[in-house]
Amino acid sequence: MGARALLFCRLEAESSRGYAIALAQLEACLARAGDLIGIQAQSLAEERVASDSKRKLVSFMRRAHLAHIRRVVQRARLENPELPEVKLWRGTIPFMEFEGLSNTVLAQARTHQDLLVRHGLSEPLVDRLEHLLEEFQQVKQQRMAARRIHVTASAGLDDQGDEAMRIVGIMDALNQDRFQRDLPRLRAWASLTSLMNPSSSTHELPPAA
Question: What pTM does this model have?
Fold first, then answer.
């Protein structure tokens, strides 16, 4: 509604310098809000892409790399029962828990590599798991960065909204004085400002003739 109030005030401009300054400040405030809305939307899109990439990476590593190591370990435990068993999850798992489990499995594969290779472990697959976990870390950081940008933009948008309300409040008092004897304009202005903040509207319109 701030854009409508701005348009109204442009069309019903007053000659005072203070009015012109307030009008320019409102315009700058709304322009900044528009920029923040764009930043907010872009960061949200990046956050969703990163989240989707994380889910795909988790699914891929589970069904291929981690499953391969688990099956090799099961077979190797016939030779060495003291070898820690690899247990994978069913359904979904928190990303932090996944990362900890995957790094444990990777470390186990590196530590017992000679034994596991004798039971079918693919060394290149273990290397690829390590690279994928590094990629997972990068995607996680990208999501966190996008989230921070989104939160910052949202806070800035709230600030710009509050500032716009303050400026419109200044213009409101002035316009009530200007349009005291012009009921159509007064009603038009009142409808705009009450839409912006119905709970704080202080307009007291004269009854219709």
Answer: 0.76
